[in-house]
C-alpha cells in the first residue's frame, strides 16, 4: 500500500498529518449519512472524504502502474472510487476511501521502525588512537593508523585496531567480539582485536592492519549487507491484487451487461474493495504486539511478528543469553588440613577485594553474596576481612602485590598468601600438583581456576564460571514442544559451551565463532532462523537472521538496536511464548480473510441482483471489517496453553 506516502505528496504535508485527514473525512461521512447541511453546500460533504482519503490512493495506484508496472490493491480501490464518483455515489466513494486509509494507518503503525544497529556499531568504533610519532605517542584519527604502527592503549579504552601486544600485560574484555564471559589475559606476543576493552593497565601493540580493515569495520560492512538482503513483507491484499482486479472487472462488466445499469457495476466494484484484506493483518498483528508488550517483549514491527510465525529453528548465544553473563565462584576445594571451603574462599576474597581484575572482583563478590545468604554478618559488617577463616592466617593483608595476568600476593599474619595461576605458585616455589585433579576437571568444563597458597603450601582451589539462567532448560523444552530446533552459537571455548549446553539440554553446539562465523552459522541452519543474543558480537547475527531477539536488560545498545524483538526483562521463556503467539496471530489473520471473503461473496451476489446499492453495499461489506477488528481484539487476552 502506498497510500500514506502518496498522501504526503498529494497534500504536500508530512505523513504524520494523515490522522487529521482521516478524522475530517470520518466527520464528513457522518454529516453526509445524516443528511445534515444538505443544500447548504454545492456538493455532498462526503466528497471531502473521497478527496482527502481517496486522492492519495489513486495517486499511489497510478504511480505504481506507470513507474513500476505493479498492480496493487490500490488499483482495485481506485477503480471503485472513480466509478462511484462518476455515478455520483459520493458516500460510497468516501466510505471506501476512509476504510482503506485507516487500514494503511494500521499498517504504518505496525511497520518496522528504522533500526539503528549499524549506526550503533559505527559509534562503537574508536575515533582516536595513540600512535608513536618520533619520540613519543600522539593522538591521531583512528583512520590514520596503518599496519606496523605502534599504538598505546590505556586502561578502560577500546582497542582501535587489530594488533599484537609488544609491551605490557593486561586483561581485556573480549565479549564485544567473541562473547567470552571471562576476561582474557594478554601478554607480549598475544593478538588483540579492535573493539575489545582494555580492563587493566597500559599496554603497547603493533597494528596488524589499517583501521578500515579491522575486525569491527568488517562487522559494520557485513551488517549493512545483511540488512540490505532482508526483503520486506508484502501485504495480503497486494499479493492477490492482480487476481482481484481481474475478477472484479469481469463481475462488474457482467452485472452491467446483464442489467444495463451502470450503478450495479459500481456496486460490485465497491463490495470487491479489499477492506477486510487490508485490515486482516494489521489488526491481528497490532493486538499480538500489544499482547507481547504486556509480557515483557517489545516487537518492533508487524513484519517481525509475521516472520516469527515461520521460525523453525532458534540459534542462541551463550554469555548473557543462556547464562546471566557474570562470573561467580562455582566450586571451592580445600587442599590442606585445617582449611575448609569457606575458609579458602574467604582468604582469597580478602586479597582479591583489593584487585582490579574482573575475576578477582568476582571472587570478592561471591564471598559477600555467600555470607549475606547465610546471615553471617550484621548490617554494615559485610566483607571477606570479617569472615571466619579456619586455619587461614588472620589480619589485614600487607605488602600487597598485583602480578598482571597471573594473580595477587600479600602478607597476612606474617605469612605469604598467594592467589593466582599454577605458574605463579611455581614461580614462588610452591608446588601446585595437589590441585591437578580439580584444575583438570573444571578446566574441561570451561571454568577459570585459581589456586590459594599460604606459607609455601597450596591450601585450596577455586573455579569460576558463568551461571545458567534458571529458565534456560525449560525454554529449550518449550521450543522443542513447538517443533523448533535449538543450536548454541558462541565465541566462547568448546569446553565452556559444551558444559552450558548440556545443562540447558542443547545437543547442537558450535563454539569458538567470530561474529562473521556466527553469520555463516545462521545461514547454514536454514532460512527461517531466529537468533537470540545480547552482545555487540551478536549484532551481526541478529541483523542477518530471519528474526533477531535481543536481551534488553543485560544486552548492549548495539544488540538491542539490531534486533526485531527486545526482551525487556531478559526472560528467555518469552522466546517460545513469542513463537506460539505469532502463530496464533497468523491463524487469526487467516480466519479474518476467510470470513471477509465470505461476506464479499454474499455482497457480490446481492449487488448483481440489484438488492444492494453502492451505499448499502459499502455498509454491508464492511461487516467483514468489523468482524476482523473484533476477532483480532481477542488476541489481547490470549495466553499460551
- Oligomerization status of the protein chains: single chain
Task: List low-pLDDT spans.
Answer: 1-17, 110-119, 228-234, 376-389
Number of strands: 22
Measured as a percent range, the helix fraction is: 40-55%
By DSSP (H or I, 4+ residues per run), the number of helices equals 25
In short:
Helix content is 49%, strand content 18%.
Could you characterize what this model shows?
The model is unreliable at 1-17, 110-119, 228-234 and 376-389 (pLDDT under 50). The chain contains 25 helices and 22 strands. The longest helix is centred in the last third of the chain and has 35 residues, at 574-608. Helix content is 49%, strand content 18%. A hairpin with a 2-residue loop joins β14 (407-412) and β15. The protein starts with a helix and ends in an 8-residue tail after the last helix. With 641 residues, the protein is of the alpha+beta class. A seven-stranded mixed sheet has the order 10-22-21-20-11-18-19, with helices on both faces. It has a six-stranded antiparallel sheet with strand order 2-1-3-9-4-7, with no helix packed on it. Strands 12-17-16-15-14-13 form a six-stranded antiparallel sheet, sandwiched between helices. The protein is elongated and about 110 Å long. α3 crosses α5, α10 (262-272) runs antiparallel to α23 and α14 packs across α15 (358-374).
